[in-house]
Amino acid sequence: MVSHFWPWLSTSRMLLSLAVASGLSVAAIEIIDDRYDMAPQFESLRKELEGMGVDSATDSDSGRLLRFVEGIDPQARVFLDTEIATELNDPFGLLLVTVANDAPGSVEEVLDLIGPPDAQSSALPDQTVFIVHESGQILLSEAPDLKRRPRAVILRRDAMARQAVFIAPSMRDAGTLEVMGWDTTKQAFNFYERGLDPGQRPVWQWKGDSSHAWQAETRSHACFRCHRNGEVNMKELRVPWQNWHSQTSSIKPESIAPDSPLRTSPIYAIRPENRFLRGGDELERIINQWIRRTNATKLASYRNGRIGIETLLEPFFRTTTLTLTTSTEQSQSVGGLPIGLPVSFFIDQRGLLDTGELFCPSMLTFADDIRLPRAEYRSYLQMFGFRLEQFDPASGSPSYSESPGDTHFAFPASEVPRVDYDMISQMVSAGIVSRRMAANLMLIDYPNPVYSPVRGALYTMLRDKPLTAVPGDQLDNALVAFFGQVVHDPAAPDEVISAASAALERWELPQDQWETRACELIDSYLGHVAAKAAAGDAGSFFKLLASRYAALRASDHFTLVESQLLFPNTDPFSGLVLRASGDVEPTPLIGN
């Protein structure tokens, strides 16, 4: 189950509970549903069922909930009654096991199983619907050959928002249906996927729960290829909520095919009378709530020894998933305001301000210093080959092309994922690391808040040289010892040794001096960046943007890219990093 929700992204299926996200690379993006052909699994299932005395022709597996946690289970198998009480305590799972051979096959049937919205008899009476569409501003008449992937997310909650089911339906015939349900016993999401057997009857599989995203043997399989942290996904977790129907930019109904369920079904239709339809701003608040809950469970798993220190600390060193930011300005506005580049492209402002509590003057004013005149902005798009393109997966030829091209809101870029930021914040609040140590870690290679090759190399060394600490103890001293090992490691790259040495120097500063020193570094760096922008010398930042796209393509979460129009193609740039001088330079290290 490669979930799209998260990107929520804009996906074609829905997960029960809060998150659905999926995405594939270039040619595969337009044939996503073909991945969910479950037929190859049924021959082994038939033999297993026959061994249990079940006639596969009459007591079909289509009525049974199957378990298939890829990486642990060698194949799908019948869910045992003894497992149900332990594993399935979310609203959807509890209902699903009661319907036997009458399992829901469609979105409408899933909603019927949950119960009607607003009804007192329903445990989840609150229903909301969200729409995402990467080509939602391109009319059918403007690009008749464009392959479009509008998607929806349906959320059902109880009155107190303590229970949730997120449903991500395919918008194609015979597509999959994904559901995520919050298990109040495990305090985690259960992931479900509905496929079809060779007779086109619905078959539901339990694909695991959030904890499987934290285990090496399961993390790179099925749902957890996209739900990298076991959370619900939404890629565009910041105003203007690019690609989502929202208060900043409504998806145009004329961009959706007339026969799409998003035009024909009263559940999704973008019409004033659809009382369930909500905007990306509301979804952002919901996603943040469930990210916090999932991370709290992850933190508890560390305290009870179920996950290791290196898993907990990963957000300090690696970009674990995809969160997109953009300018708040539309790229095609004629005579509009200058285009402000997103601050989070240059520095982790949220983390350093909110968690590190570093109130450096430059971070408070930098947004006004990095605005480009529209003519200059467009010249860089032209100069570095930025173009919106979609390729036909069969022929490899473009079915849509706009050059120079940009997304609806300008300068789409990766930023520190919200789930990573929240995990760091919870670690500080819980006393796992001090505020000072958290700030110190975030200052490592701070000009590169995502896909930092230096932090990536440090994380590789951290896994090879695990910290020694008792679960629940503060990790500050263990991290100081780790940096000391790096500094004296003859095999470590010079740039990594330098970063570890700088971290130790900052740590050894007197308590009343470290914040001042940190702000001196940040203010100097942001001043150099602002000076380049003011001098009309911002072209290198566009090359850096293209290089970060390349890092995303090489990452373990590129599956979240569900559309070729999520961000532009560019001339080839890779291996570039931003320095404290404001210069963009190549690095021999590999980003992570």
Account of the 3D structure:
By secondary structure, the protein is α+β, with helices and mostly antiparallel strands. Helix content is 34%, strand content 12%. The chain has helices spanning 5-8, 26-29, 39-51, 81-87, 91-96, 107-114, 261-264, 280-303, 309-317, 349-355, 361-369, 374-383, 418-429, 435-442, 453-464, 476-487, 494-508, 514-534, 539-553; strands at 65-67, 77-78, 126-132, 151-157, 164-169, 177-183, 188-196, 202-209, 324-325, 339-340, 371-372, 388-391, 398-402, 413-414, 576-578, 584-586. It has an eight-stranded mixed beta sheet with strand order 2-1-8-7-6-5-4-3. It has a two-stranded antiparallel sheet with strand order 9-14. Strands 10-11 form a two-stranded antiparallel ribbon. A hairpin with a 7-residue loop joins strand 5 and strand 6. The longest helix is centred in the middle third of the chain and has 24 residues, at 280-303. The two termini are 24 Å apart. Mean pLDDT is 86; it is low at 1-42 and 48-62.
- Which class of secondary structure composition applies to the elements? alpha+beta
Helix content: 25-40%
Mean of all residue-level pLDDT scores: 86
Q: What Rg do the Cα atoms give?
A: 24 Å
Tally of helical segments: 19
Low-confidence stretches: 1-42, 48-62
* Approximate strand percentage: 5-15%
Question: Main sheet, how many strands, which sense, barrel?
Answer: 8 strands, mixed
Distance between the termini: 24 Å
Strand arrangement across the biggest beta sheet? 2-1-8-7-6-5-4-3
So what's the overall shape? Answer: globular
* Extended strand count: 16
